[in-house]
Amino acid sequence: MKQEKLHEKVEFKNMRELVEWIGDTYGEKKAYSFRNDPVKGEVITKSFLQLRDDVRGLATALAGIGCNGKKCVLFGKYSYEWVLTYFAVLSIGGIIVPLDKDWQGADLADTAAMAEGDFLFCDKGLEEKAAAIAEKVSLKVEPFYLNADVNSDNSVAKLIENGKEKFKASEDSYYNAKIDSMALGLLVFTSGTTGKGKGVMLSQNAILSDMSDVIPYIDFGEKSLGLLPLHHTYGSSVMIVGHAMIGCEVYISSGLRYIMKELKEQKPQHLILVPLYMESFYRKILANAKDTGKDKLLFRMIKISNFLRKFGIDLRKKLFKSVNAAFGGELKMVISGGAPVNPEILSLFDALGIKALNGYGITECAPIIAVNRSRRSIAGSVGPVLDIDEVRIDDPNEDGEGEILVKGPNVMMGYYKNEEATAAAFTEDGFFRTGDYGKLVGDVIFITGRKKNLIILSNGKNVYPEEIENELSAVPGILEIIVYEGQSKRGLEHNAIVAEIFPDKEYLEKNGIEDAHAYFKPFISEYNKGAVAYKKITVIKVREEEFPKNTLRKILRFKLDMTID
After folding, report:
1. What does residue 142 show for φ and ψ, rounded to 5 degrees?
2. pTM to 2 decimals?
3. Does residue 193 carry a pLDDT above 60?
């Protein structure tokens, strides 16, 4: 289906070309803003020209110590220096190995050793973890610290300063550094929700082509808030590469506890989120309405507003001004990815005048495969497939559902030093097996669930837990919910569909609910009334602690105790 593009498509041969282009194109326009001290610190801003010049300096210094073509392990908080290191290493043909700063030192060391890291960049304050890596990996030089003072010999700031002087004297080591955009550029170790991750090999071309293909169809704003962890491709590809392409200012958040304050202060026009943030904002909106006694009024106004919109009368900006003020008052769009999001949550944002788009991607595809668009959003779907990709459904059932297969320039080169896993991940004709189940209607993907999460009952029936989770996740008082087949010690015939719930304890307390199990039971019963027999929930578990998660806030299902006896 032909769609109107909102922006011209801009393509780049490599990251260095992108860095040079944003300096020339956006100049003194703000690229990044942040506070070094989230409480007392002044806002520091960096323009696209400064970003370009800092990358030139750092890249020149790194070329001088032999980073070209070498693997550079990188971990730390979301920071301007993290972004610079990412661009600089890739701009001289190096390889970024981004890791999760919250991993234990031993896990970081094992992964860095598996990656055969050559150089190490991390935050000051993570010296013990850096030392653990250095003990296990033969680094070319001592670790460099992203946030260390310019006077420190091992600081990225010092590298930039020295590199700028070298660049002034000669630009050759920067501009003449060889970049093979089809070769390994990013080695990402997935934090799998079903077990130990693998090293995904992505080229610069994969990342750049993916972002170039998304941007023309999305009505981005001039400013966003940087929230996502950068060691995931969703964070690095979208927040670093994609936002550079559109010339958007990114205010780097100081962390979860400051988000609501930052939203009001920075007034972003769009946000890139994972469903957990969407759910958190959704609950805050409803809780605030209830606490102020305006919940019934809110839903009445939504009903009236939605009715008027059918006749082309849009009063959302005026009607819900006070609600939107909590997000800064300028927020026009949110994009959610990384996991399924409840349609009720998307509907509420839309009803309040905030365009809510969800998409679909996977690390192995750099990461986006499909996304709903500003002028083409299909309810219940994850949107149209990217123009660069070809998608088909493998072995579809009577409903057209099967495993989603994809082929395109954004697909990974393979798994690092794992030929067996790579071979298993591709079909004979070169399509990547995503491990996700869904169906294709025209060029639009509808996700059913993860292949590895699929529940196959003893009677042969298939149950997609995500389908049930999405239906129940908006129940008041449910903070998180996971559905699975409970394993009975008495045999398969006694297994049962379980809904395990981590409750919103604050909500329960505010509403005088002491017995969470008894409170949730009527909601489960209501769901069961409309569910086919084999999808009915027969066991409810209530957790005391939140589910174990990775840093993209995905629940690690393989760590759950699924016994029911």
Report:
1. -65, 155
2. 0.85
3. no
